Amino acid sequence: MQKILIKNGKVIDPAQEINGEALDILVQSGRIAKLAKNIKTDADTVIDASGKIVIPGIIDMHVHLREPGREDKETVASGTRAALKGGVTSVLAMPNTYPAIDSKESIGLLKKIIKDSGSANVFICAAITKERQGRELVDIAGLAKAGAIAISDDGASVDDENLLLAAMRKAKAAGIPVVCHSEDKKLSNGGVVNLGLISTKLGLRGISRESEYARVERDIKLAEKTKAAVHIAHVSCRESVEIIGRAKKKGIRVTAETAPHYFSLTQEALAGYDTNMKMSPPLREARDVEAIKQGLKSGVIDVIASDHAPHTENEKDIEFDRAEFGVTGLETELAAGISELVQKGILDWPALVHKLCLSPAMILGIDRGTLKAGKPADITIVSAAQEWLVEKTVFASKSKNSAFLGRKLTGIVEYTLCNGKIAYKKA
Ligand SMILES: [Zn+2]
Ligand SMILES: [Zn+2]
Question: Looking at the whole model, is its pTM more than 0.70?
Fold first, then answer.
């Protein structure tokens, strides 16, 4: 197998407390063979990374690849290509596909698709309940055995408290985390934007903040009872950050994630009824964005994940009420993190890399997320100061519904290595 030498990049690897030192990385047989100053060796390929930042491949633990069933939106092939372009080498695929990933058969089907067409590492999140209907648990132990590394009914919360309690107990026994889409749909009441000034102004039905934080509170209560590993997905409002912070102080086993749109955008972005600003949970207020940033800084929020949710033009280019919820994110998450967090002094580079790479690896039990010798060579090389304009034409994803369209972001991926191969190189 190819020997690749990455020369002189500024390496950021929080697992080894390396913060910007100029180092060489030797990649051999799919793994990181050596990380040191000035490695002298013959290599088949030498990449000059002078002036570039070198980080572990990003692990995005919240991605909708849409296959099987909605290949018009995205496929494992297009989604993993988009991932690599964004510097993401591993994704956790959410189970709201058709069929849902709720049986050994559907896991088998997805595994085959991944093997045949995936170009990045795809890990499988199985559903909590059959067809994600919230009524009957899947065979959690069996699906974990078949390869699911987490469970979630993402897109919906499990309303039945006793059912979720039982699911958490079984997930704990199987050694996998429960990812909670914390939303009380009775309280979100068919809303499409944040409830408040913006819903009144636009004449649209509002989603209350309580629909999120009341459910976060309940999910954490169950985490405390069961001592299962519970991960709160896409935190969007201040109250949720506070509740999670208090739970962590109490020693409850909970982790949390947010997505770039929640630390970059407020509900004001909806002024023109732009359906690319429609997602669940919705964009909130400036005070929420501030709380999310502070939550990232303080460590209350462990992970940045994209909640990559591709939709076709037909599903977005319609009246606001009818448009689908969700935005793409694989190709903008690193740049959004650099632009909104590192450049604005909220996080330093190691903290950003921790949230994009190391934390998700630890939560999911994936033996990646670091550049330690011996680990699989998943490596992202970034021109960290380069600005680019987010346009529909740049995306490798099948769908173009990005909340960052028309904006300039800083930081562009030059190379992505996945399992020791150059899987993406900027044109
Ligand atoms: Zn969700
Ligand atoms: Zn999602």
Answer: yes
